[in-house]
């Protein structure tokens, strides 16, 4: 992660792919969220079937120092189940919308996982010892006859095969009328926020029967509804600050010290629109699908349908950087509206040093942008380029009439192969890319 | 269809070209769907988003239909079993099964 090296100086190599190669993808297997923990040791995925799979980075092999270790399955559990709210006649999907790790405070790991309505705090703990030599029961669990016990012994801890157990420690339910799109752990490590289409709530991690509503944009008359909340995040080091984005392409920064209800923002970020370019599609493609603070806390990044924008928190009237993800789709907006792809919600992420950003696209392509050199690269997550340690070849979409060799034309793109979720290791050049039901892990070749 | 190679580096010209591309797409869409709403990103689209997961059932209709079923043949659910509105009266057989995936994820395989 040198500050000077650009994205094209990286040599991204295939490391691993997880998941089945079936042609027929079961809906439950579609990955819906990917997240590294704060050290990068653990990588969690959530899917539409409500399951969470956690991978752990194994120690590097001493014999081959030029390879980083691999990620292997550490724990897997069913986080959420499908539900039916009979009172409201509402079907609640078990799909995991987001996973967020808590910072590690002891030997156990904690994460928050959420579906549309309920957030759960999971503890993932290891057990590698077991007590043996109980007084009141045998090794196989049978109770001993107390009258036959003639001496006392102290149970001894004996090693056992490592067991990783996931248990739900808290269930935060019944606080959201609309569908939860975001959760974010606060830097105070005590509270977190959850956001749905119209409201944002603040929770204490220890308290499940109460939460504070801090943003409410529901109009008195629903006929007047013009925008919804699309994403929200807590500031990485200022525990009183959070942001939320809207379907109209705006971002509001709020300070919880100013008022209990943060309906009025402290800062309002919006890029002025050129009125001559206004069209039926303008608002839809300006809808922000993801917002992420930089690790430094000085910038934030937003993803709309066609671009990624970096904003300086000190400048509200326009972004400081704009990166086009797949501008060639402008000439396809009609069909993308008809097949609903225009409503796809792409996420985006920063690398550990905030010098590069990454986001997904169609045809299993994903894009990386270097903020220093302004160079960009398109890579593909595919089984074809999945040979061990094979370097990924840059891909290119041809927009003009002449298609060069190795380029792919816009009309040949597979819009069913969407990369909506990607994650970048917090410290190293290791990335996780979710391609429908497969999880790809790529690493930068260590020189 | 008019995708000429753009050699100009002027940001303004690029914006104009983009605007024309998008306007062209808008014309295409309006030609296909003349009744498309005046507020494209507005209420209707947002209300649909908010109502995701909503299921409809009228127990009165259901019970009346059960009573009538002995005499009259009612329309049966078509391929799209989720569409339980209009003339079709849902029966327990029509409703999509609530399933829970207790199968381990293939990522862990």
Automatic annotation (TrEMBL), chain A:
InterPro entries: PP2A_PR55, PP2A_PR55_CS, WD40/YVTN_repeat-like_dom_sf, WD40_repeat_dom_sf, WD40_rpt. The keyword Repeat applies. Residues 381-404 are annotated as: Disordered. It comes from the Eukaryota. Gene3D superfamilies: YVTN repeat-like/Quinoprotein amine dehydrogenase. Pfam families: WD40. Keywords: Repeat, WD repeat. GO terms for cellular component: protein phosphatase type 2A complex. GO terms for molecular function: protein phosphatase regulator activity. SUPFAM superfamilies: WD40 repeat-like. Belongs to the phosphatase 2A regulatory subunit B family. PP2A consists of a common heterodimeric core enzyme, composed of a 36 kDa catalytic subunit (subunit C) and a 65 kDa constant regulatory subunit (PR65 or subunit A), that associates with a variety of regulatory subunits. This is Serine/threonine-protein phosphatase 2A 55 kDa regulatory subunit B. The lineage of its organism: Eukaryota, Metazoa, Chordata, Craniata, Vertebrata.
UniProtKB/TrEMBL annotation, chain B:
Residues 76-109 are annotated as: Disordered. Residues 98-109 have a biased composition (Polar residues). One of its GO terms (cellular component) is cytoplasm. It is found in: Cytoplasm. GO terms for biological process: cell division. Keywords: Cell cycle, Cell division, Cytoplasm, Mitosis, Phosphoprotein, Protein phosphatase inhibitor. The keyword rRNA-binding does not apply. Belongs to the endosulfine family. Protein phosphatase inhibitor that specifically inhibits protein phosphatase 2A (PP2A) during mitosis. PANTHER family: ALPHA-ENDOSULFINE, ENDOSULFINE. This is Alpha-endosulfine. It comes from Oncorhynchus mykiss.
């Amino acid at each position: 992660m040198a500050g000077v090296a650009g994205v094209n100086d990286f040599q991204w190599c295939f490391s691993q792919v997880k998941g089945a190669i079936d042609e027929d993808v079961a809906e439950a297997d579609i990955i819906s969220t990917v997240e590294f923990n704060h050290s990068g040791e653990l990588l969690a995925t959530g899917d539409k079937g409500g399951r969470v799979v956690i991978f752990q980075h194994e120690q590097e092999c001493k014999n081959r120092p030029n390879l980083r270790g691999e990620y292997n399955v550490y724990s897997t559990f069913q986080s959420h189940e499908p539900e039916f709210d009979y009172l409201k006649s509402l079907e609640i999907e078990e799909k995991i919308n987001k996973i967020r790790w808590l910072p590690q405070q002891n030997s156990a790991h904690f994460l928050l996982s959420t579906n549309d309505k309920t957030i759960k705090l999971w503890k993932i703990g290891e057990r590698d010892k077991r007590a043996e030599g109980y007084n009141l029961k045998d090794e196989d669990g049978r109770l001993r006859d107390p009258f036959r016990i003639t001496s006392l012994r102290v149970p001894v801890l004996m090693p056992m095969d490592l067991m990783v157990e996931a248990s739900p420690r808290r269930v935060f339910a019944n606080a959201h009328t609309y569908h939860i799109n975001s959760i974010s752990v606060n830097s105070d490590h005590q509270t977190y926020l959850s956001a749905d289409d119209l409201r944002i709530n603040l929770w204490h991690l220890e308290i499940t029967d109460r939460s504070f509503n801090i943003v409410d944009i529901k109009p008195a008359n629903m006929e007047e509804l013009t925008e919804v909340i699309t994403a929200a995040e807590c500031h990485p080091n200022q525990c009183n600050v959070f942001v939320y984005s809207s379907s109209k392409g705006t971002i509001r920064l709020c300070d919880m010290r100013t008022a209990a209800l943060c309906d009025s923002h402290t800062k309002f970020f919006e890029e002025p629109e050129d009125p001559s370019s206004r069209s039926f599609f303008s608002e839809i493609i300006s809808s922000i699908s993801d917002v992420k603070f930089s690790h430094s806390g000085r910038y934030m990044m937003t993803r709309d349908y066609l671009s990624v924008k970096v904003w300086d928190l000190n400048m509200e009237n326009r972004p400081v950087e704009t990166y086009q993800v797949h501008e060639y789709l402008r000439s396809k907006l009609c069909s993308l509206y008809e097949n609903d792809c225009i409503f796809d919600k792409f996420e985006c992420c920063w690398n550990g040093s905030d010098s590069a950003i990454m986001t997904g696209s169609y045809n299993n392509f994903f894009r990386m942008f270097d903020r220093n050199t302004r160079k960009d690269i398109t890579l593909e997550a595919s089984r074809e380029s999945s040979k061990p340690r094979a370097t990924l070849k840059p891909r290119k979409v041809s927009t003009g009439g002449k298609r060069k060799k190795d380029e792919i034309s816009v009309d040949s793109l597979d819009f069913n192969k969407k990369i909506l979720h990607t994650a970048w290791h917090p410290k190293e050049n290791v990335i996780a890319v979710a391609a429908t039901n497969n999880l790809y892990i790529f690493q930068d070749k260590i020189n | 269809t008019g995708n000429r190679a753009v050699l100009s580096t002027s940001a303004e010209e690029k914006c104009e070209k983009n605007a024309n591309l998008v306007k062209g797409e808008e014309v295409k869409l309006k030609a296909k769907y003349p009744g498309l709403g005046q507020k494209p990103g507005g209420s209707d689209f947002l209300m649909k988003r908010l109502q995701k997961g909503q299921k409809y059932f009228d127990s009165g209709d259901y019970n009346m239909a059960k009573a009538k079923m002995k005499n009259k043949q009612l329309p049966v659910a078509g391929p799209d079993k989720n569409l339980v509105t209009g003339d079709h009266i849902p029966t327990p057989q029509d409703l999509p099964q609530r399933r829970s995936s207790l199968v381990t994820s293939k990522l862990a395989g």
